[in-house]
Amino acid sequence: MSATAPTISELIAQERRLTLPRFGYDEAYALGGLLVSLARERHAPVAIDIRRGAQQLFHAALPGSSADNDAWINRKRRVVERYGESSYLVGTRFRAKGTTFDESSRLDPDVYAAHGGSFPVAVEGAGVIGTVTVSGLPQAEDHALVVEALEQFLTRHFS
After folding, report:
1. CB atoms < 10 A from the CB of 148, how many?
2. DSSP-assigned states of every residue in 91-127
3. CA-based Rg of the chain, rounded to a whole angstrom?
4. Can you give the residue ranges of every domain in the chain?
5. Closest C-alpha to 150, from 120, 126, 113
């Protein structure tokens, strides 16, 4: 898993590439299980959250995670819901302009966090319908874990 900071164009390409043909309860459970497996292999102290609309379809907290990770999940998820892009892409766009999300978004940092780890669940023909979020690692690693899981999920379930 690469944890180097991707460029804006790389982040946009990830979102385009990782669009799903469908996403429901079974897909959320399978993706969540895959994320748990990947995190356990790495002994990653993360919490995982998958939502479709306002409904939480999957949640797991692994050893070493805490309620603080759930708060981060909510803050990062709200960025995806508001902007329709990954929380990492939103934060990277602000940094590319020479500022930060907290300084320039005019949004409450206790409610929104443009840190890596929340990714839009996009469905072909429908657009963004949910989120998949990981919290517990440095932001580049949270983001990379979600991307890796979505890549494997697409290959295993829709190829």
Report:
1. 15
2. HHHHHHTTS-HHHHS-S-TTT----S-EEEEEETTTE
3. 14
4. 8-155
5. 120
CATH: 3.30.360.10, 3.40.50.720, 3.30.450.150, 3.20.20.30. Which one for 8-155? 3.30.450.150
- Residue-wise DSSP of 71-87: HHHHHHHHHHHHHSS-H
The whole-number pLDDT of residue 159 equals: 84
Q: What is the mean pLDDT of each run of 10 residues along the chain (159 residues)?
A: 78 97 98 98 98 98 98 98 98 97 97 98 98 98 98 95
Number of residues in the chain: 159
Q: Is 3 in contact with 144 (CB distance < 8 Å)?
A: yes
